[in-house]
Amino acid sequence: MFKLRKVFIYSVLMSMPFSYALAAETISLTGSSLNVESLLKLKDSNNKISLTNYAEKNIRNSYDLLMDSARKGTPVYGLTVGVGKNKDTPVFSKDGSLTSEGRQLSETFNRNMLYTHSAASGDPIAPEVVRMAMVIRLNQIATGHVGVQPDVARIYKEFINNNIIPVVPEDGSVGLSDILLAAHIGAAMMGDWDVYYNGQRMSAEKAMKLTNIKPLVPFGKDSLSILSNNALATAQVVNSLEDAKKLIQFSPRLISAALEGVNGNISPLLPHTLAARPMPNVQKVGKDILDNLEGGYLFQIDDNRPLQDALSFRGAHWPIAHAISQVEALEQLIEIQINSSDDNPTVYPNAKNVDYSDSSQVKKYFTKGDVSGAINSSANFDTIQLASQTEAFINAMAQLGKYSSNRQIKLIDPYFTGLPRALVDPDDKNGQAFYTLQNGFTALFVEIAHAANPVSFYGIANQGGIEDNFSNFFQAGKNLQKVVDGVATIYGFELMQVAQAMDLQKKVNKRKLSIKNQQLLKQLRESVPYYSKDRIFTPDVEKTKDFIMMF
């Protein structure tokens, strides 16, 4: 249901008049300077991409080096020979002679490779994710380490700028290149598959006719380069990062509100307390929470205030600090990934003076000509670092959901809050309020706990035993999205109760909230009114979640 909703929203946005959209921006791809912020901007189809002259030169040189190497009889994986178990099967003449027969053989091989690898299943990946994946892949091609025809770069660019988004099923990747998924992008480029054009699903052939785009005729190692990369998995993680960072940013606001809701103790957050154990980011988070509490009653002495709160309140700053550390580490890896080639073989124009270049084996990989360089078999598509760091971040986000769930158990207990049981308004004599809300966030916590289990260990050796390692990076990205969505809703459940608790602190105990918590409460109450009596909660859960994500 979530995916269908995303596709629907995408369709609506794509059909909106330009005047309703933000001013269009053109982001220039160099092969070395793409970042997460720019990628997220390119989710918007009004924003376009261009290639710098240097990037276009890299693309030409990379292709020329590859073909020159083939002409000189160098065996090249995916070019002069097949792939996987067929790595020893000739594709066209080993001397690289480009006869019409040899070219036809290469074109047939490339077309059939895209056909036979288009074998994914499941619902379509969100169009904005596929769009970002194509941007990532084009930027990687611009590094000069891929070796495709310049025509491949041309069609990536035209698809992106004309908002032609291939339909890509989501199931079928083991994480060391999204082969069965990305092949659908290549099939669409040939005009042989479906796309979304301005939000409407249609044949790629029709969309390209409407936009005067010439279909791709893949040749050389074009098809291998189109399908053998991790751009889709990377884009999926980037897409989740946007919402994840919003939740992390909101977390100190939620904690400060929760503390005022339960008459909490600020002692664990004081600068000298945290300076005794200065873990990364924790002092910054502590300061953010305290800043949000300025002007409120928690800085005033209260002899009835507990000396210590439950750990989910007393230590709420720790998982936030940890999440910040993990997202920073993940973004660092992503920015390396999107500005690098994860291709096999690796094409390296102008490679020279490398270590071990005096040995006869290493010399074999080099060629001299109009463009000199090296063609090397590689495993640069291995994403174990990205997958493992994504899983570390998943765990960090799931911890936020766990702490929130534990706080909510305490919020309805008068022993911890000093407020009416289940946060019932004292004038509502028969009210039940939030007592049964626990099932809702508990069910979500079970889901995110399951999604937080590592998947990077699993797989079955295939391709004749050659492909015997897996990272399941794409699956990790799917799990990250599930966890982020779950935590957002769990936070929604908590904020509903925290807001009620703050209102009751004012009403029952005549306490003054901090300036920022007063503002937060006022803004929330514009869409989610105070619970003076029982009502259906379900619409409020969605409204509160949306409030957090838009805050």
From TrEMBL:
Top-level taxon of origin:
Bacteria
Region forming the signal peptide: 1-23
UniProt KW rRNA-binding keyword: no
Q: Which InterPro entries match?
A: Aromatic_Lyase (IPR001106), Fumarase/histidase_N (IPR024083), L-Aspartase-like (IPR008948)
Q: Which keywords accompany this UniProt record?
A: Signal
Q: Which Pfam families match?
A: Lyase_aromatic
Q: What is this protein called?
A: Aromatic amino acid ammonia-lyase
Which species does this protein come from?
Shewanella mangrovisoli
High-level lineage: Bacteria, Pseudomonadati, Pseudomonadota, Gammaproteobacteria, Alteromonadales
